[in-house]
């Protein structure tokens, strides 16, 4: 299989429907063996980025005129082509990320499911179109005919995520939603899975030709330097950015987008500790089960999910002691494992080491010792509520298999923590129905700091559906009004336009009164 993959990898960029560039700058990496893979890739130069941006702008003029059905057929074709090449794509992703094949096959299914969800939404929009009919007889001023439509923003830059080489990368949710909205897309491939990005791009290339889409509707540029990313978001042709990654890098790019001569929206998903609030009654009844479920969730993907539960808040007492005992037993048996990249492993280890040096931090348990420098151990620590509230370091996300248990003396302290949370993608409140009814103040406080409020379930796993919200107040995301998952994600790449007194013959079809989805006033 490795030989089969190698014959399909050019290591080049895909721009204006052509593969271009010299593949001799960087290699992708096998995190399990801690060795470079035998694939060389080009790193985009200034002229490559400029060419991709101009190609995207040219293609946008044609692509924005496609019908919703044509775009739906394009998205479905991409899903078909990815599914047809799933064996090679997942084999490459397995080598580049070390993620299990079963996980990658499931992620491929999710990727294709996202594409098809947007296609179905284009064929059958959920929301009615709004039309205010004219009333020329109204006094003292006549009322004009006004109809609210949507226009795509323009070329969109998408940054692939390290931890989801398929569902949040080349043909992931940002790309799918932007294409669905009528925007052209330039993907900056993540260097940790450059081969996977190229293989998925080849599926998009085949689908584009099959559906007669304009050259430049999609481009892939590769690179392993910050300059590639910063130059891309500074291209005047780029009208929006989708990003999933670290707070540090995301904030740099967000600030660049805001500082442009023409500021553009930056939709960044930047991180979350996904707190778990354990109410007293359910903790007393299910301490052992809750602890085991916590460990299982925080170890999914070796803790490298954006929804990994990294914070636990509960009251001290006998029930919490039982919870800690089970957590200790479960974590102590876990092996060390490789992370997605050596850089991620190094950052995780430095953060954990710093936490353990804090005299106010107590170790609950660690997994088995690592046998190599690129491996990391699962870790759980405990601190008092007052220590946690006084420390910004303790409140930051540790990306990896680490959880912080905050021990509260009172329910008031639990509420205080909820009120002082930074923005989160998710939070879960574990409680019986009767005690949930008694903690409405806590529930409301948590709700104002999260994008998804969960009850009695762990946060890992994000359903791709119409009602999903994957976002949250900063720093979970840079725009709490939007989602990066689900059919509503395409709204990020559209803007409203009001057509006033436009003749019926030239109105967009979806705004004509013959369309059953039109709501008149």
UniProtKB/TrEMBL annotation:
Residue ranges annotated for the Aldehyde dehydrogenase domain, each copy included: 22-472
Keyword Magnesium in annotation: no
This protein's UniProt keywords: Oxidoreductase
The keyword Zinc-finger is assigned to this record: no
Top-level taxon of origin: Bacteria
Listed transmembrane segments: none
UniProt xrefs under Pfam families: Aldedh
Name of the protein: Aldehyde dehydrogenase (NADP(+))
Lineage: Bacteria, Pseudomonadati, Pseudomonadota, Gammaproteobacteria, Alteromonadales
């Amino acid at each position: 299989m490795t030989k089969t993959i190698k014959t399909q990898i050019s290591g080049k960029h895909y721009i204006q429907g052509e593969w271009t560039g010299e593949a001799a700058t960087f290699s992708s990496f096998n995190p399990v063996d801690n060795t470079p893979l035998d694939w060389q890739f080009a790193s985009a130069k200034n002229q490559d980025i400029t060419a991709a941006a101009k190609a995207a702008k040219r293609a946008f003029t044609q692509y924005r005129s496609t019908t919703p059905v044509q775009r739906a057929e394009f998205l479905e074709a991409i899903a078909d082509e990815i599914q047809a090449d799933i064996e090679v794509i997942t084999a490459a992703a397995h080598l580049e990320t070390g993620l299990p094949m079963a996980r990658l096959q499931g992620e491929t299914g999710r990727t294709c499911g996202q594409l098809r969800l947007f296609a179905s939404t284009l064929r059958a929009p959920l929301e009615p179109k709004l039309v205010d009919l004219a009333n020329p007889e109204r006094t003292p001023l006549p009322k004009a005919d006004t109809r609210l439509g949507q226009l795509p923003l323009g070329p969109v830059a998408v940054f692939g995520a390290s931890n989801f080489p398929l569902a949040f990368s080349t043909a992931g949710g940002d790309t799918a939603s932007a294409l669905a909205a009528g925007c052209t897309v330039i993907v900056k491939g993540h260097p940790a899975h450059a081969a996977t990005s190229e293989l998925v791009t080849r599926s998009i290339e085949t689908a584009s030709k099959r559906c007669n889409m304009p050259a430049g509707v999609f481009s892939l540029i590769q690179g392993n330097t910050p300059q590639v990313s910063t130059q891309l978001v500074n291209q005047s042709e780029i009208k929006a950015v989708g990003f999933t990654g670290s707070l540090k890098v995301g904030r740099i790019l967000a600030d660049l987008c805001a500082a442009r001569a023409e500021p553009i929206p930056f939709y960044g998903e930047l991180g979350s500790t996904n707190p778990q609030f354990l109410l007293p009654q359910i903790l007393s009844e299910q301490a052992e089960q809750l602890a085991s479920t916590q460990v299982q969730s925080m170890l999914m993907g070796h803790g490298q999910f954006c929804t990994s539960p990294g914070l636990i808040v509960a009251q001290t007492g006998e029930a919490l002691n039982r919870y800690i005992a089970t957590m200790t037993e479960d974590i102590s048996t876990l092996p060390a494992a490789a992370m997605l990249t050596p850089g991620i492993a190094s950052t995780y280890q430095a953060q954990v080491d710093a936490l353990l040096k804090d005299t106010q931090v107590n170790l609950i348990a660690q997994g088995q010792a690592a046998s190599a420098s690129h491996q990391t151990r699962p870790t759980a620590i405990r601190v008092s509520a007052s220590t946690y509230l006084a420390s910004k370091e303790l409140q930051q996300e540790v990306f990896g298999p680490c959880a912080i248990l905050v021990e509260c003396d009172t329910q008031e302290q639990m509420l205080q923590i909820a009120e002082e949370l930074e923005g989160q993608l998710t939070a879960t409140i574990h409680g019986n129905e009767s005690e949930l009814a008694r903690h409405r103040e806590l529930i409301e406080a948590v709700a104002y700091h999260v994008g998804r409020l969960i009850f009695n379930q762990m946060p890992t796993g994000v359903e791709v559906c119409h009602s999903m919200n994957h976002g949250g107040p900063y720093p979970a995301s840079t725009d709490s009004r939007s989602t990066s998952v689900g059919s509503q994600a395409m709204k990020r790449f559209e803007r409203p336009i009001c057509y006033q007194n436009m003749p019926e013959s030239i109105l967009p079809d979806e705004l004509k009164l013959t369309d059953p989805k039109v709501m008149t006033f």
